[in-house]
Structure prediction request, 290 residues.
Amino acid sequence: MNYRKDFEECLEYIETNLKNEVSTKSFADYLGYSIFHFCRVFHHYKDMTPMEYVLRRRLQQSILDIKKGKKIIDIAMEYHFETASGYSKAFKKYFHNSPSHFRRENSKEYECTLGNEQRQEPVRIEIRTIDSFMICGMTMHMDYESTAFSWNMTAFWDKYDGENIEERLYADINPLKHGEVGICIKQDDNNSQIEYLLGVIAPSVDTKLDWTYYTISGGKYAVFTTPPVNMQEDDKVLASTVRNVWRYIFDVWFTSSGYCYDETRLDFEFYDERCHYLRDSVMEIYVPIK
Prediction:
């Protein structure tokens, strides 16, 4: 499966349609993907959702129109912002100055990151066949169509840490095995909306507890162990390493491995005691294959 070729074509398609009405569905249809699978792969490939990428490219491209002296309201309409104030707000969010301020400066180049392009090869790749198992935890409803997806995901993890959700889960569930699982649960293949669940392995369902339960399907998975990082020096470095390995999986590994992604099951991330702020912290990524 050559995801690199497909997504290079997709990025070209986006470039030619920045001034047209687009959606995750139109991109998925262009590649012949289901909406959910397209959104998952794009997010791992570019470290942002499709519509976050479109927004940033539109803002970058609009700078050329500002330099040409076009009216802000005309630029906003041309790039499918609902209002001129909405465009100005988005511009300031990414460039930290308003379009009018940029027009006055006129000489300063503004940069708007289009995602991390780094790839990191995992230290170990194993093909494992696992049994199905149940997890239990906190969920948040999210939509890949939203341009705020990445901010919402960060807010979710901040809440998980800040409200001691992990400690509460272990106290309530008393799991037989230590470890947290993060998974994006799809509504259906042709829907961009998901429930993101972060939780622990549950021995059984307790309806008295106010947590969400989900059963992860058994079967064959490619398991990628991330390169060890020193979280005692930088507690954010594991998260960036995980993103880089995800990019390696879809940009390199699937192209050469001979395996295909099994869309009947879901991928997930597994964090155990090996990633608890150690000098050599690692975690595992499980990808369903066939």
User: Anything to note?
Assistant: Strands lie at 124-130, 133-143, 180-186, 193-201, 212-216, 219-225, 268-271, 284-288. The longest helix spans residues 237-257. The mean pLDDT is 92. The CA atoms of residues 119 and 244 lie 5 Å apart.
